[in-house]
Amino acid sequence: MALHLIRHTRPQIPEGICYGALDLDVGDSFVGEAEVLRRQMVCTYSGIYVSPLRRCLKLAEYLDLSFEVDERLREMDFGDWEGIPWSDINQGEIDSWASDIAGYCVPGGERFQDVIERVGDFLSGLPEGENLLITHSGVIKACWVQYGGRSVDDVANLSIDFGGYLSIPEGI
User: Fold this and answer.
1) Three-class SS of 86-148
2) Integer CA distances (angstroms), 157 to 4, 10, 117, 119, 151, in order
3) Buried b vs exposed e over 115-128: b needs ≥16 C-beta within 10 Å?
């Protein structure tokens, strides 16, 4: 099974604001970013699966794809940090999270390990062939841990652009 991963396009939110589970709309650059993605999608997919958050659903609809929505593909819930400028979040909490990316539970939210586990559960049920996920940076990183054999520390430093298209080939 090959796994193709698309991060949603730039959302409608100012720079520097923490978000994950917030159901944000797409930003002003949506059409241009979506058209770049359309040109990158060159194969026929066995299955197409999309996060239930609006920024992913709108992309899948714009690309005129036949897809299934799966709750396990939603972004990490940053709990009390959602919608707050990163600069206003207690630095001690951010440091605790940074020193234990997988295990630290964001106040009122979830651990990255929770994301890894739900993504693993999702991946275990995928059909053979080429599968496409339209989802979020945290979920894509969890896919790299679960399916691509990368460590949590390695993916923590992985930068995924808005509208990014990545593939994890079969057999990694």
Assistant:
1) HHHCCHHHHHHHHHCCCCCCCCCCCCHHHHHHHHHHHHCCCCCCEEEEEECHHHHHHHHHHCC
2) 20, 19, 20, 19, 10
3) bbebbeebbeeeee
Could you tell me the residue range of the domain that residue 45 belongs to?
Answer: 2-168
Contact 3, 168 (CB under 8 A): yes
Q: Rounded to whole angstroms, how far apart are CA atoms 51 and 6?
A: 11
pLDDT in tens, 59-74: 999 999 999 999 999 9
Residues 6+ apart with CB under 8 A from 132: 4, 5, 6, 41, 45, 47, 48, 49, 65
Q: What's the rounded mean pLDDT across residues 145-164? A: 94
The structural domain count of the chain equals 1
pTM: 0.95
CATH at 15: 3.40.50.1240
